[in-house]
Design a protein that fits this description.
Membrane topology: Multi-pass membrane protein
Largest sheet: 2 strands, antiparallel
Strand order of the largest sheet: 1-2
Number of strands: 2
Oligomer: single chain
Family: Belongs to the multi antimicrobial extrusion (MATE) (TC 2.A.66.1) family.
InterPro entries: DinF-like, MATE_fam, MdtK-like
Order of helices and strands: HHHHHHHHHHHHHHHHEE
Number of helices: 16
Organism: Pilimelia terevasa
GO cellular component, one term: plasma membrane
Distance between the termini: 11 Å
């Protein structure tokens, strides 16, 4: 493979290139959580119990989305390093293997969620029968979308690695726009109620997965599983998986704590957490661009460029996070009313809002540096940061909020401490003079040459 097949030659990726990759990624990342916000607003007008049921069911299905994010981040990192080394075919091959992983894991998650929907809803629901039953019914249908979620994320991963943001943009907008239009129709005129929301979710996620499969088939590359590449992806995925499990466990713990405060705080938590996820996805646009560019720089043997990109990404994340905080502060009294007519939920949301707004600038830097470390293949350190911050800070803070009856504000104070702890540990890493770590040699399809035991392409 000649070097001509790789990315355009650039002496040093600057802020402009980072922004050019981040902007279309911003739209892609915003599309899914924006649909979830529409979903929450539609369901919220069914009543407090329906919104609380969506909070429980959605928190379980979010596990599939986090697995997909892990898969996408690992694939982007590996694809970008191959792309930076001039091997576009190898970068796409990473996408093929990620798609196999996505299909297997997606089916397993769907079957598990359908089978365990009742016990999971009961464990998280705090004993309210109407909320538990609604959450279980929603989850049994929505779980069918898990394979589509993971296929979409795998496709996003390799396309970001080769710095193609146009096709993912079209796919994300098309699938989510169709589903956003279907959701209110299924919930109200069709008379399906809460489960209409679940069917709309399945439609969007399945359509997205099929579109990314079509993009992979259009590359005309071998589609067979390759154990060497799968093993490499699993090694990287292991650290990202532990990171994601620690984060998801922390958020599930917080949801379970809030459920004990009653249905109004739980419904308010659904509004706040979905808005937080929306902001996280929007701010993650900088992280995705950083993954691709830092991975390219490391793969091309330019550690100085990687360090420069880390600084630029952190500053851009700080700017976007500050802008998000300003907007959220301005709409503090208006936005919760879009989701529900219940004054008790509005009052509960006010407890979380100061923490929600105040953490945004710091979160912007954290998300950007997450992407920088993943792009550099530094997932082991990122895993440790998340475990320490989640298990050591966020979970104890949530449990303390329950013990001291601090309400929703106490849980969100814990989330803010979680962000602060991650920020401190990430800054310590990227400021080290020996960062980034040297790249691992890429896995390549191999065969024996003669009897020497040497491996070649």
């Amino acid at each position: 493979m000649s070097a001509a097949a790789g990315p355009p030659a650039t002496p040093s990726p600057g802020l402009g290139r980072l922004v050019r990759l981040a902007l279309p990624t911003l739209v892609i990342l915003a599309a899914e959580p924006l649909y979830v916000l529409v979903d929450s607003a539609v369901v919220g007008h069914l009543g407090r119990d329906a919104l609380a049921a969506l909070a429980l069911g959605g928190s379980v299905l979010t596990v599939a989305a986090w697995f997909g994010t892990i898969l996408a981040y690992g694939t982007t990192s590996r694809s970008a390093r191959r792309f930076g080394a001039g091997d576009r075919a190898g970068a796409v091959a990473e996408g093929v293997q990620a798609t196999w992983l996505a299909l297997g894991l997606g089916v397993a998650l769907a079957v598990g969620a359908i089978w365990a929907a009742g016990p999971l809803a009961a464990a998280l629901g705090g004993g309210d029968p109407a909320v538990v039953e609604g959450a279980a019914d929603w989850l049994r249908i929505a779980a069918w979308g898990a394979p589509g979620i993971l296929l979409t994320m795998a496709g996003n991963g390799w396309l970001r690695g080769v710095q193609d943001t146009r096709r993912p943009l079209r796919y994300a907008l098309g699938a989510n726009a169709l589903s956003a239009a279907a959701c209110p129709l299924l919930v109200y005129p069709a008379g399906l109620g809460l489960v209409g929301s679940a069917w709309a979710n399945v439609g969007a996620q399945s359509l997205g997965g099929l579109l990314f499969l079509r993009a992979l088939l259009a590359e005309r590359v071998p589609l067979r599983p390759r154990p060497g590449l799968l093993a490499g992806q699993l090694r990287l995925g292991r650290d990202l998986l532990v990171r994601g499990a620690a984060m998801q466990g922390s958020f599930l713990c917080a949801t379970a704590v809030v459920a004990r405060f009653g249905s109004a705080p739980l419904a308010a938590h659904q509004i706040a957490i979905q808005l937080w996820m929306f902001c996280a996805f929007v701010l993650d646009a900088v992280a995705i661009a950083a993954q691709a560019l830092v991975g390219e720089a490391v793969g091309a043997g330019r550690p100085g460029d990687a360090r420069g990109l880390a600084r630029r990404s952190a500053l851009l994340g700080l700017g976007t996070g500050t802008a998000a905080a300003v907007v959220l502060a301005a709409v503090a009294t208006v936005l919760p009313r879009v989701f529900t007519p219940d004054p008790a939920v509005w009052a509960a949301a006010r407890e979380a809002w100061p923490w929600f707004v105040g953490m945004q600038p710091l979160a912007g830097v954290v998300f950007a540096l997450d992407g920088v470390l993943i792009g550099a293949g530094d997932a082991g350190y990122l895993r440790t940061v998340t475990v320490v911050s989640g298990v050591g800070v966020f979970v104890p803070a949530s449990l303390a909020a329950a013990y001291a009856d601090l309400g929703l504000g106490g849980v969100w104070a814990g989330l803010t401490l979680f962000v602060v702890a991650r920020l401190a540990l990430l800054l310590l890493r990227v400021r080290r003079p020996d960062w980034p770590p040297p790249p691992e040699p890429p896995d390549r399809p191999a065969r024996r040459r003669g009897g020497s035991g040497r491996l070649s392409r």
